[in-house]
Amino acid sequence: MMYRTFFAAWMLIAASTVHAEWKLYGDNGKAEFYYDEKSVIVSGGQVRVWEMLNYGFPLNGVLSNRSHKEYDCNSEKFRNLSGEFYSENMLKGNRVSNNVDPEDTWRPVIEGTQNQALMRLVCGMRS
Fold it and tell me: What total of structural domains would you count in the chain?
């Protein structure tokens, strides 16, 4: 059963890479921040989205990563659901590491960050 769960999660991650249409939403001089508009899922006051970062320089052998995030739009909190880290920009090269275990703890979105910019962008997509 555990194998099937892991395989299903891996397939979901692999499929979302193939069909992602990354849109630039921020650049802080050290990294470019993208999101996949097609991945946005709204459920009441919560929104899920895939985010990708391209780093201007390697961090522990990583030049890009993507994470599946969930935002609680009403309380302005978030948690990471899964993530992958790659040796080249745009999720290319070798996968350095990954995490498919969702965080249990919701964390506050910090004022003035790219994370806040993404939260406002995707929470604004709610009807």
Answer: 1
What does the pLDDT profile of the chain (127 residues) look like in tens digits?
544 444 444 444 444 445 799 999 999 999 999 999 999 999 999 999 999 999 999 999 999 999 999 999 999 999 999 999 999 999 999 999 999 999 999 999 999 999 999 999 999 988 6
Residue 107 pairs in a beta bridge with 78
- Residue 117 sits at φ, ψ, to 5 deg, of -60, -45
What's 55's domain CATH number?
Answer: 2.40.128.710
Query: What is the domain extent for residue 30?
Result: 2-123
- If you write DSSP's letter for every residue of 89-126 in order, what string do you get? GGGEEEEEEEE-S--SS-EEPPTTSHHHHHHHHHHTT-
